[in-house]
Design brief:
By secondary structure, the chain is α/β, with parallel strands linked by helices. It contains 38 helices and 15 strands. Helix 11 packs across helix 13. The longest helix has 29 residues. The radius of gyration is 33 Å and the shape is globular. The protein starts with a strand and ends in a 10-residue tail after the last helix.
Length: 872
């Protein structure tokens, strides 16, 4: 290899030659950010030329070249191994200069064309000095042939050409004129490059890999594409045009990478991770001498499976209605972890191994497997391994659908049976399971099972999950519940146990109107609903414990019919799973907290007496002594197991930071409810996707410790927020804020808690993480410190995030908030944040209007486009 410093003019001028961007290269991708930086460097050099200064030239970067297989002695052709973005950008800038001066200085325009852009005496593709990769070739050639400024072309090439045309118009401003030919000279003679030229015997692919290892960030799909097309010297053009380019146009780069990974899994590699895709496929090819025919066969198969993969991403492309319905459900569930099994089914159907009816039946097993596990709170942390193993473990001695049914029913797969599902529907806090969109889909499927003659269009209906018996019950609700309590239980305990069960949940578009009202008022609203399940609730005379359990039994019957059961003979692990979950949450109790038997029972879907018996007879349960009665006292039946250290319970509690009141009861402010227990061991969204991507850089124990520490801190901040709120605002305001947070989470938002000993805030957030930059907050809520609390809208932060960089959208947001009675917000620069008192949310109408406004805000944020996630 040889390296030397050169100028753009020296590189491309002279005799006829061509620089070819290989098929394996990515398409042109410079954005306005890079273009603006380059343009600034060009203008700086042009100004130095204008003043006659001989300052040092500006270093632009490197270009790595290798002899093309099509090289001729009379017409040198070079492969651009690295540097295509720079060469393409400079060529487009010169084409823009040529077109800018064409009318006034035609001779200069012709000179630029012949010196830098074309080979005057060549025809066809040989006419272009730079030949981009095929995806960009037609558009680049059109701009080199002549001006296209009046055409509304899309793509990065068109955007770059348009950028330079606009900048040249600005440069010709009479108030600050700049010589366009000086700009041309700056491009061709003042921007230096280091040209690295490889010999014919050099391994170009190894050069490319080295460049990637030193900072050229390529995806696994990029690397594998490079590898494939570098090994197709004679067939590459045809294969690229016939298979690769259509495949690349139909899938994003991330989706293409996922398809490549799935192809490895379908071909029997059930352990490969996505981050190891390139190395794994390269190893398979290099086990023997790979031929062009073998690589072509691989790409053809990838192309065929690409059409099947698109049906997972876009279920509406599936022609069979039954299969399409299951794909829609799994897509709504966000069940990407099941893609290996789904691709196997579609692949086998296309090969004729099963028909569409059996494909739909097999998909119903997958859906049931996911839904039943979620409803019975089976951990999700091994789902990726279960489904990645399906292609390699599917029985060969039975039909595909039957084989999948048997495989998922295996004893170590934990697919809950009918008895377990029925019990969990009746007793478990469904509202705290899974993710919001999954809970909503379960209720949607249950509603659809009624087969109403005029069904609701769930795609357009703005439905959220409603607690019929509210989360914050008034005296009337508690009186109704008191009729169903058993000995040793209070109405509050019963409410805690039943409020989140499936029997007490429904879907509605009038969540704000229903609020915490008595059942009689809710009946009227539910009676007018278009949902059959709501009309059935409205037809019930009262809504107490018996009615909730009866509805749970009815929904359980429908769930058993909707989601098929595993094959019989599967060993049940329900009890050990539930108690393991109880042990897990007790071990995670933060310092200075306690919980009650009723809270722990409500968390796992059991009974307080059963919890007490288990803790009394199970040795080694961490923090078992921190489970007290609902009054905060040590149970009369508590005893240490022989294996425990023992000692005075109150002394142990005090050592753990638990305070006691004057009547010797544990401080109720330190008690963790069932909901707060759930937050300690809540399942993290995106766990399975992360499992495929995250490198094994740290042990499970370290990850778990950090996870629990983070949750404990967040939970502590939440308790601090509500304690401070309750100290300075009315109970009605506290209830209103809790209801608002529940509505916000139903909309797909999150609550980010910030606080210390002197202040506390809750930020309503949308997006990914704070570190990612793709996060936005419509408002923050702050309890007072001796005064009433306020809700703040930080307009300056909103103005830095698209689409709210648009002043009209921020104005519309404040206008909608001003519809709340007692709210008058104005955006001021500079000035304090617009804010309103939290107490205005005590009014049902105000809270309903705020939920509508937040829904509008979420919709604007979600429709902002894929390139607008971070700061503007």
């Amino acid at each position: 290899m040889q390296a030397k410093e050169t100028l753009f003019a020296d590189l491309v001028q002279g005799r006829a030659q061509q620089f070819q961007v290989p098929l394996y290269q990515r398409t042109y991708s410079w954005t306005e950010k890079q273009l603006r930086q380059l343009w600034g460097d060009i203008l700086e050099q042009a100004e130095l030329l204008e003043r006659g200064e001989k300052a040092s030239t500006h270093f632009l970067g490197s270009v790595v070249l290798a002899p093309s297989p099509q090289n001729e002695a009379t017409f040198p052709r070079w492969l651009v191994v690295d540097g295509q973005q720079r060469l393409t950008t400079l060529s487009l800038a010169l084409a823009a200069i040529r077109d800018h001066i064409a009318d006034g200085e035609p001779d200069e325009a012709e000179r630029i064309d012949e010196e830098y852009l074309i080979n005057k005496r060549k025809n066809g593709s040989d006419r272009f000095r730079l030949l981009p990769t095929q995806a960009d070739r037609a558009q680049f050639a059109a701009y080199v042939r002549g001006p296209l400024s009046e055409q509304a072309a899309d793509g990065a090439v068109a955007a770059a050409y348009g950028f330079f045309r606009r900048k040249l118009v600005e440069a010709a401003d009479p108030a600050a004129p700049q010589d366009v030919l000086r700009i041309e000279e700056a491009i061709t003679s003042r921007l230096t490059l280091v040209a690295v030229t490889a010999e014919r015997a050099d391994n170009v692919h190894r050069i490319f890999e080295s460049l990637n290892n030193t900072g050229l960030k390529l995806s696994q799909a990029d690397l594998l594409r490079n590898y494939l097309f570098m090994r197709l010297p004679t067939r590459g053009e045809r294969i690229y045009e016939t298979y690769w380019l259509p495949l690349q146009d139909s899938l994003s780069n991330d989706e293409l990478e996922q398809l490549m990974w799935l192809q490895l899994v379908l071909d029997g590699d059930d352990r490969v991770r996505r981050q190891d895709l390139y190395a794994a496929q390269q190893q398979r090819f290099e086990r023997g001498e790979v031929s062009e025919a073998e690589i072509e066969s691989y790409i053809k198969e990838l192309y065929r499976r690409g059409a099947l993969f698109r049906r997972l991403l876009h279920p509406d492309e599936e022609p069979n209605a039954a299969v399409r319905a299951h794909l829609y459900h799994l897509d709504t569930w966000q069940a990407q972890v099941t893609y290996p099994a789904l691709m196997l089914l579609l692949d086998r159907r296309e090969r004729g191994d099963l028909n569409s009816a059996d494909t739909a039946r097999a998909m119903s097993y997958i859906e049931s497997f996911l839904v039943r596990r979620m409803m019975c709170r089976v951990p999700t942390n091994n789902l990726n391994r279960i489904f990645q193993a399906v292609p390699g473990q599917l029985p060969l001695d039975m039909p595909v659908a039957d084989g999948l049914h048997q495989l998922l029913s295996a004893e170590n797969r934990f697919w809950p049976d009918d008895d377990e599902l029925r019990e969990k529907v009746r007793t478990a806090p469904f509202y705290k399971f899974g993710r919001g969109h999954q809970r909503k889909l379960v209720l949607q499927r249950l509603e659809e099972s009624y087969e109403h003659p005029e069904p609701v269009d769930f795609a357009t209906a703005q439905l959220t999950i409603e607690h019929v018996m509210p989360q914050s019950p008034g005296d009337e609700w508690l009186r109704m519940l008191s009729e169903g309590v058993v000995a040793g239980e209070t109405a509050e305990d019963l409410h805690s146990r039943l409020q989140h069960t499936l029997g007490n949940l429904t879907l509605t578009a009038v969540n704000a109107e229903l609020s915490n009202h008595p059942f009689e008022r809710k009946q009227g609203l539910l009676q007018g609903s278009h949902l059959e399940m709501n009309r059935r609730i409205a037809a019930t005379e009262r809504w107490g414990a018996d009615e909730i359990r009866a509805r749970a039994d009815e929904l359980a019957d429908r769930a058993l019919a909707l989601w098929p059961a595993p094959l019989r003979g599967v060993g049940r692990a329900e009890r050990s799973r539930d108690w393991n979950l109880a042990h897990q949450v007790l071990a995670a109790l933060p310092h200075g907290t306690w919980t009650s038997y009723g809270d722990l029972a409500a968390f796992i879907g059991s009974g307080a007496q059963a919890v007490g018996n288990h803790l009394a007879n199970t040795p080694g349960v961490a923090n078992a002594y921190r489970v007290l009665t609902s009054e905060g006292k040590v149970s009369d039946g508590f005893r240490w197991t022989p294996q425990d250290v023992g000692g005075d319970v109150r002394a142990r509690l005090s050592a753990d930071g638990v305070r006691f009141t004057a009547n010797r009861a544990a401080d109720p402010a330190q008690r963790l409810s069932a909901d707060e227990l759930a937050s300690l061991v809540g399942e993290a969204d995106g766990e399975e996707d992360a499992a495929q991507r995250a490198p094994e850089s740290q042990g499970e124990e370290t990850r778990a410790d950090r996870f629990y520490a983070q949750l404990v801190a967040e939970n502590s901040d939440e308790r601090r927020f509500f304690r401070r709120l309750a100290a300075h605002d009315s109970p009605e305001t506290v209830d209103a804020i809790r209801a608002l947070f529940a509505h916000w989470e139903e909309l797909g938002g999150s609550i980010h808690w910030v606080g210390n000993d002197t202040m506390s805030s809750a930020f309503l957030t949308l997006g990914e993480t704070i570190a990612s930059g793709r996060l936005i907050s419509p408002m923050s809520l702050m309890p007072g410190g001796g005064w009433a609390g306020w809700a703040h809208v930080d307009c300056q932060i909103l103005a830095a995030h698209k689409p709210f960089t648009d002043h009209a959208l921020r104005t519309e947001f404040l206008k909608r908030l001003n519809e709340l009675e007692g709210v008058d917000l104005q955006e001021r620069k500079p000035g304090p944040d617009p804010r309103f008192q939290l107490s205005v949310l005590e009014k049902d109408r105000n809270r309903g209007l705020l939920v509508e406004t937040l829904t509008w805000f979420r919709d604007r944020w979600e429709s902002r486009g894929t390139d607008c996630g971070g700061p503007g």
